[in-house]
Amino acid sequence: MSALTESWLNALPKVELHLHLEGSLEPELMFALAQRNQIELPFKDVEAVRAAYEFSNLQDFLDIYYQGANVLIHEQDFYDLTWAYLTKCKEQNVVHVEPFFDPQTHTDRGIAFETVINGISRALKDGQEKLGISSELIMCFLRHLPEEAAFDTLAMAEPHLDKIIGVGLDSSEQGHPPEKFSRVFAKARALGLLTVAHAGEEGPADYVWTAINDLKVGRVDHGVRSSEDAELMKHLAETRMPLTVCPLSNTKLCVFDDMSQHNILDMLAQGICVTVNSDDPAYFGGYMTENFVALAIDLALDESQARALVQNSIEGAFCGDQRKSEMAALLNGY
Ligand code: ADE
Ligand code: ZN
């Protein structure tokens, strides 16, 4: 590791902008919920689940991730899932989070939209009140499904607009470009929602352009393949478009062969607003601290870079200016 220690990185005030709540389902909670809901799991025990987490690409992971989500049935299950994530945030001094959830993963199994959003929102409210962690929730559309299904999901969300700040786009990227969802994103923006989209994770730099130009995103999730397009890199730097980069995810899903090859610090040096995030921590071997530690070990992350990465997350967050000032003060006081 570079001069930065794990304990310094753990205590550093941090902000997470790219986290799938379903991806924070640890095998222990998966088993507990399976038992509570009398659901048969295709794994003998927790160790067997962890042993299955070897992925060669995004789709490999998604297949097992959607299967894991089957244990989530009742409002309390969604509460427990979210609460477990917030508890981890508290341990790692993550002071503000903007998590994603995938309603279609649940509504397509017959779970009511209300069950999902009420469980998550109740935990986020408790997170603010009991742990002091502020949050903004983002609802993602699954891009492997038709745009029509995303419109249906947006309609279900309309009575709950007070609980979400924006919409996002996730799931299988290749072959499902952002522009497939232009109309539903326009409708979401007309409803006052902000927008983000996964782009340039496995998909080409062109998808980053269309996320920006067609979906009018306020942040790009991942975006690491932007480095293949010099014009795009210039545009990202000039506009300070935030990229929510997920280092451990990228190596687990073989976007980069090895952490030493990761381009996050090169992008930072080029003036791009890159941020560090955990994506699906239960599946990829770590939460926020572990992602920072990986950069310290393999890319010799130094203190000024670590601070700049957190500052970028504050800049890219969707919360109000007052909360941003509070977070900047926490960071500067550290
Ligand atoms: N859903 C959960 N994690 C994802 C990722 N890394 N890319 C696309 N969809 C996802
Ligand atoms: Zn993601």
TrEMBL record:
<feature type="binding site">
    <location>
        <position position="20"/>
    </location>
    <ligand>
        <name>Zn(2+)</name>
    </ligand>
</feature>
<comment type="function">
    <text>Catalyzes the hydrolytic deamination of adenine to hypoxanthine. Plays an important role in the purine salvage pathway and in nitrogen catabolism.</text>
</comment>
<keyword id="KW-0378">Hydrolase</keyword>
<dbReference type="InterPro" id="IPR001365">
    <property type="entry name" value="A_deaminase_dom"/>
</dbReference>
<feature type="site" description="Important for catalytic activity">
    <location>
        <position position="222"/>
    </location>
</feature>
<feature type="domain" description="Adenosine deaminase">
    <location>
        <begin position="13"/>
        <end position="328"/>
    </location>
</feature>
<feature type="binding site">
    <location>
        <position position="280"/>
    </location>
    <ligand>
        <name>substrate</name>
    </ligand>
</feature>
<feature type="binding site">
    <location>
        <position position="18"/>
    </location>
    <ligand>
        <name>Zn(2+)</name>
    </ligand>
</feature>
<feature type="active site" description="Proton donor">
    <location>
        <position position="201"/>
    </location>
</feature>
<keyword id="KW-0479">Metal-binding</keyword>
<feature type="binding site">
    <location>
        <position position="279"/>
    </location>
    <ligand>
        <name>Zn(2+)</name>
    </ligand>
</feature>
<dbReference type="InterPro" id="IPR032466">
    <property type="entry name" value="Metal_Hydrolase"/>
</dbReference>
<feature type="binding site">
    <location>
        <position position="198"/>
    </location>
    <ligand>
        <name>Zn(2+)</name>
    </ligand>
</feature>
<comment type="similarity">
    <text>Belongs to the metallo-dependent hydrolases superfamily. Adenosine and AMP deaminases family. Adenine deaminase type 2 subfamily.</text>
</comment>
<protein>
    <recommendedName>
        <fullName>Adenine deaminase</fullName>
        <ecNumber>3.5.4.2</ecNumber>
    </recommendedName>
</protein>
<dbReference type="InterPro" id="IPR028892">
    <property type="entry name" value="ADE"/>
</dbReference>
<dbReference type="Pfam" id="PF00962">
    <property type="entry name" value="A_deaminase"/>
</dbReference>
<dbReference type="InterPro" id="IPR006330">
    <property type="entry name" value="Ado/ade_deaminase"/>
</dbReference>
<keyword id="KW-0546">Nucleotide metabolism</keyword>
<keyword id="KW-0862">Zinc</keyword>
